[in-house]
Structures are given as structure tokens and as C-alpha cells.
Amino acid sequence: MSQDPGNVNNSSDIGTNNTMKALITGITGQDGSYLAQHLLNLGYEVYGMMPRRSTPTVWRLEYLGILDRVNLLEGDLSDMAACMRAVAEVHPDEVYNLGAQSFVATSWKQPVLTAQATGMGALNMLEAIRTIKPDTKFYQASTSEMYGGLRDRPLQDENTPFHPRSPYGVAKLFAHWSTVNYRESYGIFGCCGILFNHESPLRGIEFVTRKVTDAVARIKLGKQKDLHLGNIDAKRDWGFAGDYVKAMHLMLQRDKPDSYVVATGVTTTVRDMCRIAFGHVGLNYEDYVVIDPKFYRPAEVEILMGDPTKAQQQLGWKAETSLEELMAMMVDADLKRVKEGR
Ligand code: NDP
Ligand code: GDP
Q1: Are 45 and 187 within one domain?
Q2: Ligand index nearest the alpha carbon of residue 304
Q3: 189 and 94, same structural domain?
Q4: Are strands 227-229 and 289-291 parallel, antiparallel or unpaired?
Q5: How far is CA 150 from CA 4, 133, 219, 231, 304, in A?
Q6: Domain hosting residue 226, numbered range
Q7: Does 45 qualify as catalytic in the annotation?
Q8: Domain check: are 297 and 184 in the same one?
Q9: Burial of 294: CB neighbours in 10 Å, binned 0-12, 13-18, 19+
Q10: Which of 208, 213, 232 to mutate to test the pocket of ligand 2 (most atoms within 8 A of CB)?
Q11: Minimum-distance ligand 2 atom for the alpha carbon of 210
């Protein structure tokens, strides 16, 4: 892979569209930052809606060097008035709804907040679009967590029945069907990207890949002794976030709105992901990983593996980064960060 690790490489697309306006909710998150970078490279004017926090949350936009190129508006998705104000002020051509309480484990501890931000938030934004600018194209960040990953359906596509296994999955399913419903009821150009797990050096540290790569770096540099994990037999279809944000944009460029699975088609256990990450710096994960029931979940999504055939055929999209390349990118970034004391 020749691209600069952790950056979206799309220089060949620069300048293909100079006038489009995109509004991204969740712009300070992993995907929001990469998507903002991608859309800026395509010539978009990029606006981001972000909730007020007591400490700064723009470090990912700074990491990508784009903080001064995006326009930030204050607003929380659970506040419909804020959604309406954002649509009225920006008058966007495209809205990408990435804002969410996105951590599955937290959704059992804060189920109502998750329902409000992750579920109702999408409906608030759809309603804002319907009433203020109904020709706005809308992207909803749907998720493989909606499938529930039961072992009798190991490969999931757009026709696989949903069976969410967490308050997060339930909230996302509400947002997903709300988007489909606004498409069918009002003709809103609403697309759902059913994205499987995607990671990067900008992934939140609570997610298992980043927790592992951060620990690998600290253990290698003598700053940590072991790593406590939960169910390491769970299987996930992991890709690189920088690849996945391109699919979001491609969906909104089609003639008709639709839903697409975005995945690599390869599934790997947490155990093997650890093997790869520790192996990258010459360590054996078995010497460091400690199973800790504290990290078990009330209900587990056992296996996720997506069939991206439709996205390949209709969007011309495919995952470009293998899990080995992704883990190397993330471990190297964490080594650099820990060495620099950040
Ligand atoms: P992150 O958790 O990194 O980003 C979520 C963003 O949403 C943050 O900017 C967060 O701000 C913001 N946010 C949280 N609550 C609100 C709210 N009430 N109103 C407005 N914004 C809010 O997630 P990712 O970037 O990884 O994911 C992007 C989207 O894609 C999410 O909706 C996620 O659920 C979904 N998704 C992600 C997958 C993945 O593997 N990464 C897989 C499938 C779907 P703050 O940090 O200040 O709280
Ligand atoms: P998710 O697929 O959105 O829940 O992404 P995560 O990265 O949070 O979890 C992926 C899988 O790793 C799940 O099956 C978790 O149960 C499993 N896992 C095992 N140990 C841990 C851990 O310590 N932290 C997290 N976040 N997940 C873990």
C-alpha cells in the first residue's frame, strides 16, 4: 500500500466538483474526519455539526491538517431545533449523518441517550431536511450491528434479516428504517451504508483494535505489562476507515437512493487480530493477553462477515487495505505517539 498511513489518498479526484456543500454530523469522529478530508479533496465546501463539549474534541481534524478548512456549527442531534438550524444555515446539497453514541458496550449503560442520539438523531435530521430542503441527499451511517451476527447466518448482505443484539443496534435499526421510510414516503434521497467494522489510527481507544494497538505500543516500549480483553473468539470483518468513507460519497452520486453493505468479505477472530498486531513488533500475544470477564457483554455479536458484491458492482467500490496492512498502520502510529509522549 503506497498511501500515507492514516490519510485518505484521493488526489486524482481533486477538483472534480467545486460547488457542492456537505454537512457532516459527527465530523469530530473517526469517519467524520476522514470523510471531511475526502470531500475537501473533491472540492466540496464542508460543514460540520458538533455538540458542545467541555474540552476540545477536534484532535482528529488537526491530525489530518484540515481543522482550518472546515466550517463548524454547534448542535446536538438529539435537539431537533439544532438540526433545523443547521440545515437552514448551510443549505447543504448532501448531509452525512455520522453522529452517534457509537460504542456498543456503552449502549447498555446509557440506553436512553443512545436511543436519542443514535436513533432519534437521524429522524430529527430527516425531518429537518423534509421541511427545509427536501432535495438534500442524505447518508445514514447504518451498521452491521443491526444483523446481530448469529452463527446461523455467517455471511450478511442487504437481504439478511436484522436481529440487533444491543441498545446501539436497536437504535441504529430505527435510524435505518426511518431513512428507508422517508425515501418511500416523501421521496427523500436517503441512502444507508451498512458498514462493517472499520478502523484506523483515529479509532477511539475503547474499540478493540485500537485498544490492542495502543497496548502493543506500550508493551513494546516497556510502559505496560499486559492487556485485559473480553471475548477474543468473536469474529469481525475489519477494514480501513479511509477506504470506507469513499463508499459513503459514492452512494450519494447514484441516480437512485439505496442501501449497500460495505465490508471486506473476510472475517477474523479478535484472537487472530491480536496475533497480527503483536506479531508486527515481534511479540507473541499469548504472553500478554489476559481474559477479563469485565469486558464480556450482556449479549454478544459472535460473527460479522459482509458480502460487498452490490457495492462492488454498483458503486465500483472495494476495500483496498488488508487487516495486516491496517494493523501495521495502527501499531506504527501508536508507537510514534507513545514515543512522543502523546
Ligand atoms: P465515532 O464515535 O468516532 O464518532 C461519532 C461522532 O458523533 C463524534 O464526533 C461524536 O462527538 C458525535 N456525536 C455523539 N453524540 C452526538 C450527538 N448527540 N449529536 C451530534 N453528534 C454526536 O464514530 P465513527 O466515526 O467510528 O463512526 C461514524 C458513524 O458510523 C457512527 O454513527 C457509527 O455508529 C457508525 N458506524 C461505525 C462503524 C465503525 O466500525 N467505525 C461501523 C458501522 C457504523 P463527540 O466525540 O464529541 O461525542
Ligand atoms: P463492535 O463490533 O462495534 O462492538 O466493536 P468493538 O471493537 O468494540 O468490539 C469488537 C469485538 O471485540 C466484540 O465482539 C467485543 O466483545 C470484542 N472484545 C473483546 N475484548 C474486548 C475489549 O476489551 N474491548 C472491546 N471494545 N471489545 C472487545
Answers
A1: yes
A2: 2
A3: yes
A4: parallel
A5: 37, 40, 34, 15, 8
A6: 208-236+266-304+322-336
A7: no
A8: no
A9: exposed
A10: 208
A11: 7
pLDDT at 18: 63
Mean per-residue pLDDT pooled into runs of 10, the chain (342 residues): 42 53 98 98 98 96 98 98 98 98 98 98 98 98 94 88 97 98 98 98 98 98 98 97 98 98 98 98 98 97 96 98 98 97 86
User: Which residue's CA is the closest to the ligand 2 atom numbered 14?
Assistant: 234
* Whether 168 is catalytic: yes
- For residues 119 and 144, membership in a common domain is answered with yes
Whether residues 112 and 255 share a domain: the answer is yes
Whether 4 maps to a domain, the answer reads no
| Catalytic residue selected from 28, 118, 136, 143 | 143
Cα radius of gyration (the chain):
19
CATH number (domain holding residue 145):
3.40.50.720
> Which grid cell is 149?
451476527
Alpha-carbon separation of residue 179 from 118, 145, 328 (angstroms): 13, 17, 36
Write out residues with Cβ below 6 Å of ligand 2.
Answer: 104-105, 145, 197, 206-208, 211, 229-232, 234, 236, 270, 295, 297, 300-301
Q: Is residue 129 part of a domain?
A: yes
Res 14: pLDDT: 38
What sign results for the dihedral spanned by CA atoms 295, 63, 342, 242?
Answer: positive
Same domain, 33 and 178: yes
85 sits in which H/E element? helix 80-90
* Atom 5 in ligand 2: residue holding the nearest Cα: 207
- Which domain CATH number covers 224? 3.90.25.10
Task: Judge if 81 and 18 occupy the same domain.
Answer: yes
One domain, residues 145 and 30 = yes
Ligand nearest to the CA of 215: 2
Pocket around ligand 1 at a 6 A CB cut-off: 25-26, 28-32, 51, 53, 57, 76-78, 98-102, 117, 121, 141, 143, 195, 197-198, 204
* Residue 311 covered by a domain: no
Q: What is the count of structural domains for the chain?
A: 2
139: annotated active-site residue: no
Q: What is the reported pLDDT for 296?
A: 98
